Amino acid sequence: xxxxxxxxxxxxxxxxxxxxxxxxxxxxxxxxxxxxxxxxxxxxxxxxxxxxxxxxxxxxxxxxxxxxxxxxxxxxxxxxxxxxxxxxxxxxxxxxxxxxxxxxxxxxxxxxxxxxxxxxxxxxxxxxxxxxxxxxxxxxxxxxxxxxxxxxxxxxxxxxxxxxxxxxxxxxxxxxxxxxxxxxxxxxxxxxxxxxxxxxxxxxxxxxxxxxxxxxxxxxxxxxxxxxxxxxxxxxxxxxxxxxxxxxxxxxxxxxxxxxxxxxxxxxxxxxxxxxxxxxxxxxxxxxx
Length: 289
What we know:
alpha+beta; single chain; 6-stranded antiparallel β-sheet; D-amino Acid Aminotransferase, Chain A, domain 1; 7 helices; globular; D-amino Acid Aminotransferase, Chain A, domain 2; 2 domains; 9-stranded mixed β-sheet
């Protein structure tokens, strides 16, 4: 078993200062622990540069507003904090996690307007999210849980509470020997994996679900741009599960996942083909440019 994330050397930035990793704690009555009043970002640094760093910091602010709080640090201050953490820990290629939450304060019910908003940034070395799936293709289960309607949850926020069903879905998938799970949306259309967007290939064109009830990922947007540069047509649309049988290739995108080909979803198989490999290589080149 690997070292626990609470028991490591290094430093973490919390509320404006660096603290020893093992001392980066919060009170047990922190509001976010009880009511999920928390938003976060996952980012990767390549060669000392965080890819699309500012876009992530801006999205963190937007996510906070969507769940009804303001982060008391500016985007520039968050950018400086990330640079400080990378330098303090001597990291060049790393995963960076910024998280903002409602802390412990005078409110300990559902309402928490009087509680302070806190911010932390941590970074660590992290390899491929799906192991060797980059070459053989990840295997996915199909989750029984669905992404909620935007009328029931702030679907464009990268908020902790929205990941509860993702955690349950991934645990079930791993118990079946799969790397992840495909989730449908509240209408029954194909949506995304538990922490990554999804793309399909058929007859040379690319198809990807419309992100109208789940996060429009920064990596997703980057990959759509790369496909456009190569004159490859991208159809953003609602995808019915019955179409899975007809797709030839498939891949996942996300900061952690990067671009990972998919070899199987439940009983449907996909080729780890030239387009999936080529986009993965193009993405690797872009983030390291």
